[in-house]
Amino acid sequence: MTVTSGEDKIKWWKAAKFGMFIHWGLYAALGRGEWVMYELNIPVRDYERLAETFNPVRFNAKTWVGLAKAAGMKYIVITAKHHDGFAMFRSQAEPFNIADATPFGRDPMRELAEECREQGIVLCFYYSHVIDWHHPHAVHNKYNNVWDYDTDSKHFPTYWNGLVKPQIRELLTQYGPVGLLWFDTAGGLSKEDSEELVELVRGLQPDCLINSRVSHYPGMGDYQSKGDNEIPMYGEDSRIWETPMTLNQSWGFSTKDQVWKQPEAIIRKLVHIVSKGGNLLLNVGPDAGGLIPDLSAERLREVGAWLSVHGEAVYGAGASPFPYEMEWGSVTAKPGRAYLHLTSDNWQSELRLYGLKNKVNQAYVLSDASRTPLETAQSYDAELDHHTLAIRLPDKPANDCMTVIAVDIEGELSVDTRVSQQPSGHVKLEWANGRIDADAKTVEWSFQIVAPGTFDLELVCFQKEGASWDEAFREGVEAASGNQRITAQPKPDQVIQNSTACQHPYSEVHSHLGTIVFDRPGTCTLSLRSTLIRPKSGFTEIWQADPVKLRAVKLVKRQ
Ligand code: GLC
């Protein structure tokens, strides 16, 4: 991957699509995630003592970078300093660092920088610029070390000028070109201070990208980091974005957490994110010995094996031209070609795609080296202005993860961008696709019905672990279309396993609201009222997301 400069400086990142997040720090020694110091109120003096025996001799930069490469990842973002304040690099600004405070005595960031250069991976640093539980003068608006320090007697500039700025300078002058600086948890930082930090970075390395978490003020940085594990809706973001995601349910090394995402799920989520125009930054949490857990490595290699065959449909690929989710998988695109990524669930003999206007020249399974043409048929219903493409699929999926069908088209990709009923008969209406009136707490959609009938109305929500459903829905919701009106008190009726867009700490919950009839084909409308409706402009900046998030209404056609 080559880092470009000037106006195009984000080009490499946009094309890269897939990066490795590494949460590695002193906390690995305790094996219960990177928040352990805060959660257990570990006094600074005790926490510092962990450094005395921290000796990750099994750390091998070549192996880590080699794993990122084998996984098909194009860049690495590693925690140079996390909230515990321990620098994982040699720092003149603070002796509490891996090179000076541990028997290990090496600078792993330097070793990684060299190895990344060697293997063609872009090195990037995570830096916790506001939360620092070790430093006596760090101030965050919520998460401070209150067991050692008295917040009122803190002098923030001592921390800011004495530690943050010098360490950022070190990171940007000691390791060669840095692809991006990943800041985090900016709560309470003033606009001026965040701007100053941005200026500092720009002055030292103008081509180094900066993520949006550098500040809580909207629009800062070069792109949007979504909330942890958050995948947005189609059309939700106006800025370039990424989803930071865990491979299990933790960022830092955890001995207890063994809930791992399977390779198939990771691939599904990756292509889903790419189909929405984003990047996936997928995390590993190495242990105190310096090893990336085998269970992570195995999964990543499987993802890489799939990408080595299907990379063409991912790297540098554009978002789906369709502004809504497909039930069978995701769409990505390149000039003259659309890629249909199909999960192996409910494999059928034929795939139907609505709304593609171009003439199809040929369709084939991307992993089929001989490109055996698949039978296709295109039709157009002039009355409904409705295009259908039917593709005869092979008897079996081409692999267990995802089968990609390449569809070569004539001319530039042109699709019907109205939200359409899916060939199965269902319609999914996401908030971002509706007209939102935040004051009236309503959202209204218009969409195309091809096969009329009676529909079950399901509310789709993402509920955060531990969040109270009843509290979120103290008030009921109201759905209406023409003179049909449904008032309901949503119940958590069904938790969806294997949701593509939703993962821990959220789960996708469906509630049955009632039934509704759309008895004619053509354009239909539906509106919904709920106190949980947010203005669309707010979506992009909510990275500490709501406990229960409204996501969509699904119309499930009764057979
Ligand atoms: C959160 C957490 C942090 C983690 C990060 C990853 O902000 O505070 O521990 O590093 O998200 O996105």
TrEMBL record:
Signal peptide: none annotated. Keywords: Glycosidase, Hydrolase, Signal. One of its GO terms (biological process) is fucose metabolic process. GO terms for cellular component: lysosome. SMART domains: Alpha_L_fucos. Pfam families: Alpha_L_fucos. Its EC number is 3.2.1.51. InterPro entries: FUC_metazoa-typ, GH, Glyco_hydro_29, Glyco_hydro_29_N. This is alpha-L-fucosidase. It comes from Paenibacillus elgii.
